[in-house]
Every structure is written in C-alpha cells, then in structure tokens.
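Please decode residue identities from the backbone states below.
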C-alpha cells in the first residue's frame, strides 16, 4: 500500500476506534528505532497499548489474544474497515458497543482529520497529518514541531498544560495537516482548529449544529480542496 493510502487508512481506523470508545485512549505519532518506523501510537492513561505502524502492521503490547502483530494493510485489501476494526477490538480485548456513543471533542477532531485526508486518496496532491511533538523514543532529538510558528495562537496554547496531557507534554494535543509538505491546518484535541489565514473554529460547536463532519471540513478547509 502506498504512503497516501496508509496515511488515510491508519487515520480512518484510529478515528473509528476512538468513536467506539471515546475517552478511553489517546493517540500520538512516534518514530521508534531512531526514526525507522512511522507509527500512530495508542495510549490508555500513560500505558502504551498499541502501534499502528504505517509500514504495515498493528502491534498490541501485552496482548493475550495471540493475534498481534496483525498485517492490517493486507486485511484492508480484502475486508471493509468495520470488519478489520472488529479484529482490532478483539486483539485489544474490547467489547464492541452495539451503538456508537456521542463523539467527544477529541473524537470530532480525529473524525475531521480522517475525513479531510480521505478525500485525497486518488488526488494529485500529497496530504498527511503530523503530531505537534516529534517523538523518536529518545533515539534522536525529540521536540516541538516547527509548524507551530505558522499558527501563533496554537503556539501559545501549546505552552498551556492541561490535566489530561499525555506524559505532561502539551504539544501532543496538536496535529498539523500538511498539503504537499506545507502545514495548512492546525488542530487541538480540545476541539479548536486553525487555518493558515489565522482563523479559528470551534469544531464541537459546529458539530452540535451540523451533526455531520463533512460540512465542517468544507467550512474550515474548503478553500484547500480541488
């Protein structure tokens, strides 16, 4: 699977996992092995639960199911995302809910990311989403993403510690959507999003009004889309 497809697929699965279990997990971007790997890493409180390695596998730590690592990209070539997500939940030893709970602020943010990236699958532009903190597990220099300099309000917000900050690093709360390598959107998991023109939007408030994600994506980022 090419880089654009793995970007979209990994975010879609993470988004749908968080929709099923709002408030249970947090996600950050990690590059273990000194940058050899590119992962969306799932945490529960401060416990590292699992990695979606964009190179091709889903690995759960301390799993008793005996099914990890899972070749998730191979499965996606044959199965629909809900079916693959059911397998992910079984490996994580989670009971699949019969009905999706209401989306929390962070879930709305992840749904925004997955929806915006999803439009790019067959486009000519390259889209990706990167965390506000570069985490290489200490193998090479870690630090704040330089894209904060383009979003000054977000940069100020990233200096504010909140009680739920993973590992007490506020920058983990932020994500940058890039188009052809240029950061064009900044999101905070509290529900605020900024575009490159300095406009800010309250995704939670918009979602209460719209009840759907795509109209919000169009309001915030429609000028970026073909």
């Amino acid at each position: 699977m090419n880089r654009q497809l793995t970007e979209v697929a990994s975010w879609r699965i993470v988004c749908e996992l968080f929709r099923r279990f709002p408030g249970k997990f947090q996600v950050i971007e990690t590059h273990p092995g000194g940058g050899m790997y590119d992962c969306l890493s799932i945490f529960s409180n401060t416990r590292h639960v699992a990695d979606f390695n964009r190179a091709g596998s889903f690995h759960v730590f301390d799993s008793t199911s005996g099914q990890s690592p899972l070749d998730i990209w191979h499965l996606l070539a044959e199965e629909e995302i809900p079916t693959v997500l059911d397998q992910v939940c079984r490996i994580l030893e989670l009971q699949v809910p019969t009905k999706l709970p209401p989306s929390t602020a962070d879930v709305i943010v992840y749904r925004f990311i997955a929806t915006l990236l999803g439009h790019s699958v067959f486009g000519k532009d390259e889209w990706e989403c990167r965390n506000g903190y570069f985490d290489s597990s200490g193998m090479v220099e870690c630090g704040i993403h330089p894209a904060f300099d383009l979003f000054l309000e977000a940069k100020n917000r990233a200096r504010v510690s909140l009680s739920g900050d993973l590992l007490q690093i506020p920058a983990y709360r932020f994500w940058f959507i890039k188009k052809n390598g240029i950061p064009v959107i900044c999101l905070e998991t509290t529900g605020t999003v900024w575009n490159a023109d300095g406009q800010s939007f309250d995704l939670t408030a918009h979602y209460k009004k719209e009840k759907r994600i795509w109209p919000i994506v169009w309001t915030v980022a429609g000028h970026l889309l073909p």
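Observation: The CA atoms of residues 16 and 85 lie 8 Å apart.
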